[in-house]
Design goal:
By secondary structure, this protein is of the alpha/beta class. It has a domain at 12-130: Rossmann fold, CATH 3.40.50. Helix content is 40%, strand content 14%. The chain has 6 helices and 4 strands. It has helices at residues 12-28, 54-65, 86-96, 110-116, 135-150, 174-183; strands spanning 43-48, 69-74, 100-105, 123-129. It has a 4-stranded parallel sheet, with helices on both faces. Helix 4 (110-116) links the parallel strand 3 (100-105) and strand 4 (123-129). Helix 1 (12-28) packs across helix 5 and helix 5 crosses helix 6 (174-183). The chain is globular and about 50 Å long.
């Protein structure tokens, strides 16, 4: 899988593989040495056009634990505030050799545009786009539900038959949308 853009089109097998890998990664956090060399020599750019604390820090920590070089970009204080386009920003990322781009953007579909436009060759991860989706939060929610339901025996288990209630402004919630598609 080159990009993670939504849960609506994410195959169940791919979701299960991601959750199982997340289990393996979580297990490393109880070790004395928590870093892995998996992404050594790779550059991950966290491209955030919206404010974020937990999502941005989580992606930064994960990339660093996998030994990646991390560049954090916030639209505030950048040329975006002077009108720089997504395309211009993407071309800068391509020029610096980004291997992966984690993007949060207020416009629904911006991560897909970045992934399919040809502006960059890097893999793209959607960290929330407008009211569209937040697939990584949906996967984290599925991981948490699976861990709570099955405990230490959660690896390889799917969530068939699990009932989940989502409360709030579901119509405008990108997380709710990701959860509905992922857990259906």
């Amino acid at each position: 899988m080159r990009h993670l853009l939504d849960t609506r089109t994410l195959a169940r097998e791919d979701a299960m593989r991601i959750l199982d890998i997340a289990e393996d990664m979580a297990d490393t956090q109880s070790r004395e040495v928590k870093k892995l060399p998996t992404l050594r020599g790779k550059t991950v750019v966290n491209l955030f056009f919206e404010d974020s604390t937990r999502t941005r820090i989580s992606f930064e920590a994960a990339a660093k634990r996998l030994s990646a070089d991390v560049i954090n970009f916030a639209a505030k204080g950048s040329s975006v505030s002077k009108g720089e386009s997504l395309k211009d920003t993407a071309q800068t990322l391509e020029a610096i050799g980004a291997d992966a781009v984690v993007v949060r953007h207020p416009a629904s579909g911006a991560p897909r545009t970045l992934a399919t436009s040809g502006w960059i060759s890097a893999g793209v991860v959607n960290a929330g786009d407008g009211t569209h989706e937040h697939p990584t939060q949906g996967l984290l929610d599925a991981f948490t539900i699976r861990k709570r339901r099955f405990g230490a025996d959660s690896r390889g288990r799917d969530l068939s038959g699990v009932r989940v209630v989502i409360v709030g402004d579901v119509l405008h919630s990108r997380v709710a949308r990701s959860n509905v598609w992922l857990l259906s």
